[in-house]
Amino acid sequence: MENLSLQSLYEQIGGAETIEKLVNTFYPKVYADPDLIPLFEGDIEEIKRKQRMFLTQFLGGPTLYSNEFGAPAMRMRHLPFEITPTRGLAWLRCMKEAFEEIELTGPIADAFYARLQQVAGIMVNTEE
Asked: Which GO MF term does the entry hold, naming one (predicted)?
């Protein structure tokens, strides 16, 4: 058995298959959330594709996002959108629900979610 501590979070959660399940479970929740839906315009399939690429890279997998779009710079990319603390928490709630629905649990999932909490905090750019 491989030493899990030497594997990336991407590998530890199950790689592309888990990222695919997570993104496909997460976005219907986002699109159903009245706080979040105003932020999402355009082709949902393209939004999901970018999220898969970002999460893959974010968790230590292949650098898919940077290869196509350059440095992630997520805060800068999201500045045109009013991301309030309420919206940050709504995004995290949708993600947590998606984790639970696909049964992404345990210490590795907790580490992944903790990193997402940091990202959500950084993304807030507008007061309530």
From this structure: metal ion binding
Asked if 72 and 66 touch (Cβ cutoff 8 Å), the reply is yes
Q: Are the CB atoms for 120 and 91 separated by under 8 Å?
A: yes
CA gap 78, 30 in Å, rounded:
16
Q: Would residue 87 count as lying in a domain?
A: yes
For the cut 80, the answer to whether the pLDDT of residue 17 exceeds it is: yes
46 closest CA partner among 62, 32, 27? 27
Note the pLDDT tens digit of each residue in 74-117.
777 776 778 999 999 999 999 999 999 999 999 999 999 999 99
Nearest to 40 by CA among 31, 48, 49: 31
Q: CA neighbours within 13 Å on the CB side: how many for 61?
A: 21
Residue 128 falls inside a structural domain: no
How many domains are there within the chain?
1
Domain harbouring 114, CATH code: 1.10.490.10
Residue range of the domain that includes 67: 4-123
pTM for this prediction = 0.90
